[in-house]
Design brief:
alpha/beta; 11 helices; about 45% helix; about 15% strand; globular
């Protein structure tokens, strides 16, 4: 391999900027140098007379509960798995969380500084990047922007969630809230969020078909009846509740922004599982049609959702490769409404190419 010399001060800044924009268009480079994932709903539960660490989620996402079919995948934080009493008081306080975030952000900044000065040359050499390509990555890293994703099933259940969001923003973090959307069914919470919104992500893997989202949007013409339907769904049917919540909250935010200069990014995380793989492309199209300013982030179900067993069968392989090829095509074409992450889909495609003769692998 020819050794590359990296003299970034001698490069054409226009060419570097062009390369950076193209890498960002494909999702190969983020606008952030790093990210923090924070579950704010870790609490203590009294189970069998013992205090244990658990997740304070108000939803029940399981394939079945007490022998009754309830959904398409299993979440280990499902409410039915925690029969004991959960202590809300055991949630970390906003002060403690913000102290931890401050330390984490400082640690990322120090790491980023060391990475830039000690390792970028080695990484660029190993990846066979041109000096201009390496400089494009450096531009993003040097901006030192950090994104924070707050999650926890329904993190709005944290009594100090707004203090956490505002405090994180004061630390200079770009905040994203990943939620089921349940609290948006409550007017008081929704109005408080809309007064100072942050980027937000909902679940899109709970629709039972590509037309489900259209039916829910039609039902939203009568908000009170919609809310009554939501309340009538038994608690053990967590995935059914999540579908209604996601559409309600996304529509509420979309409508509020028509008369506001504040634009909130809306993301739909779409877990591809055995229950929706057959119509995944049609579902993506439906979401984009209903919410044209939102983005969809599809990804495979984790084996952890199926007790460590493979979630897909051999019969799903052809469908999976078709999805991967489509995502690569959509990314290269720049299709609107799809999260761009070309490297991710190329990695999955490479697994098919490498193990083509060994489907078990």
């Amino acid at each position: 391999m020819q050794k590359l010399e990296y003299r970034f001060d001698q490069l054409d800044p226009v060419k570097v900027e062009q390369i950076k924009l193209e890498l960002q268009r494909l999702g190969m480079v983020s606008e952030f140098m790093g990210g923090i994932q924070l579950d704010v709903m870790v609490a203590k539960a009294k189970i069998h007379n013992m205090l244990r660490e658990s997740g304070y989620c108000d939803h029940n996402c399981r394939t079945e509960t007490n022998g009754e079919h309830t959904g398409s995948y299993n979440c280990n934080m499902a409410k039915s798995l925690r029969p004991g009493q959960m202590s809300v008081k055991s949630l970390a306080s906003a002060n403690d969380i913000l102290f931890g975030l401050s330390n984490a952000a400082e640690g990322l900044t120090v790491f980023n500084f060391d990475f830039i000065h000690l390792y970028i040359g080695q990484i660029a050499q190993a990846a066979q990047l041109t000096p201009e390509e390496a400089a494009a990555y450096l531009e993003v890293l040097r901006q030192n922007r950090i994104i924070l994703n707050i999650f926890g099933g329904n993190p709005e259940l944290h009594p100090q969630i707004f203090e956490i969001i505002e405090g994180a923003q004061r630390l200079g973090l770009q905040v994203n809230l990943t939620t089921t959307g349940g609290m948006f069914m409550m007017d008081a919470f929704a109005q408080k969020f809309l007064a100072n919104p942050t980027d937000i992500a909902f679940s899109a893997d709970d629709f039972n078909g590509p037309n489900h989202i259209f039916k829910l949007m039609d039902a939203l013409k009568d908000p009170e009846a919609y809310r009554a339907t939501w309340l009538s769904i038994a608690p053990q049917f967590g995935q059914q509740r999540k579908a209604l919540e996601a559409v309600y909250a996304a529509n509420l935010i979309t409508e509020s922004q028509k008369e506001s200069s504040i634009k909130t990014k809306i993301l739909f995380n779409l877990v591809i599982h055995p229950g929706n793989i057959s119509y995944i492309q049609e579902l993506i199209n439906s979401i984009i049609q209903v919410f044209p300013n939102a983005e969809v982030n599809p990804f495979p179900a984790q084996d952890a959702f199926y007790n460590g067993e493979p979630s897909f069968k051999f019969d799903d392989l052809a469908e999976w490769e078709n999805i991967i090829d489509l995502m690569i095509q959509f990314t290269i074409e720049g299709r609107q409404g799809i999260i761009k992450k070309l490297h991710y889909w190329l990695l999955l495609k490479s697994a098919f190419n490498v193990y083509r003769s060994n489907p078990q692998k």
